[in-house]
Write a structure and sequence with these properties.
Elements lengths: L1 H9 L1 E2 L2 E2 L6 H4 L13 H18 L3 H10 L16 H8 L1 H6 L1 E4 L37 E2 L2 E2 L1 H7 L5 H5 L12 E4 L9 H8 L7 H5 L7 H11 L6 H4 L20 H7 L1 H14 L8 H10 L5 H27 L6 H19 L9 H10 L20 E8 L4 E10 L5 E12 L3
Antiparallel strand pairs: 1-2, 3-6, 4-5, 7-8, 8-9
The structure holds zinc ion.
The site of zinc ion has 8 residues, from helix 14.
Length: 439
Amino acid sequence: MKQAIADFFWGWDKEKRKYHWASWDKLSLRYDEGGIGVRKLEDICTSLQIKQWWIFRSKQTFWGQFLRAKYCQRAHPVAKKLDTEQSLIWNFMMKNKGIAETQIKWKINSGNSSFWWDDWLGEGPLASYCTHVTSLNTTKISQFLVGGTWNETMVRQWVPPLLVPKILSFPIHYQEQIPDEAIWKLTVDGLFSCSSAWEIIRHKGTKSIINKGIWHRHLPFKISFLAWRALRNKLPTNEKITSFGKEAAHCSSCYRTGEDNIDHIFVSGHFANNIWSFFSAAAGIQHDYIPINMLLLRWRRQEHKSEVQNLLNQLLPVIIIWNLWKNRCAAKYGAKQSSTARVKFLIFKDTTHLLNTAFPYIHWANNWNDLYKMVEKCRQETMVRIVKWEKPCQPLLKLNTDGSALSNPGQIGGGGILRDHLGRMIYAFAIPLGTGTNN
Ligand SMILES: [Zn+2]
């Protein structure tokens, strides 16, 4: 499957598979970690299996009841061991149970969840600290409670001494009839999301500012991807294809002889140098012979007076790289003559097209120097509006209320104030509401 996707991505040439310039594992990293932002199919499958486990554990579904009846009639799902004899779906879920369970926390309401196997304390299942608890143990949290608080004698009797203080000080907001709730730890709202699951299972690379800089939602994929390949020396330059047994050829862009390699095509060659110098001058950036990644970094780190300028400093180098490559290929394989004037024009055209997409209401200048000056001067406008409390008309009173959460989920509370037509306080209140989410 992976092979098929990779083949499709790199393409076929006359029934022959094309050379794969990078492994699918490297491609499937996040942008900022040096990938091209695709997710590996196997990782997507795993996150879906984790999702199935989450639904099985957190919701009352017919399918969940069926699984429980079939596989967990005696043992608690957390304690259940993998058995290869059992169905495929169940086994896939079981395989990822370990990952899923560490991200699930239980909020106690009526205490119907398992005291020993459900992680409500945030320390993992308590059964893992005891030898006397078996997978068949069905003790509920409510059995350790008396009148909505901990039954201290019982806790001391059954729980390892080290955990006792933590349990006794663990706040309970007992709510009869309301089942305990599962909270997915990785999201703000406590609900499962596939991307949060994907984030913990995927293979990770090292982050770098240049990696991220070549991708932008306003840049077409092919343009960013070309820069990605240039940065990794994964382009069919003459220097590169001689290693496949082809004959070396000279640079096609310049009017003089030179090598056809990444550095020459994109930075140090006569042609590239002419283009960079032209665009760098207006931006006040010095252009000299540094490796291509350093060049991108220099543009990215360039000081900016406006956010638009910042955006342009990030995207222009990527557009330049794209057009340098297009020109080189047109001169090498097509009938076109290499031309600095044409390339400058095309870079300018691509740039204004991009700015028009991002800021459709601005009429941009029609030459590079004016455009850059304009971009420097762009300011974001902020509107100031006074928000004020107004007194109610007699005999009405006004009640203002609000709620807050210290963290999410975390300690929550609400409060309010009742005032009359002169703004005098009639009544005010504040109530802690226990633990919850900010919505
Ligand atoms: Zn050249």
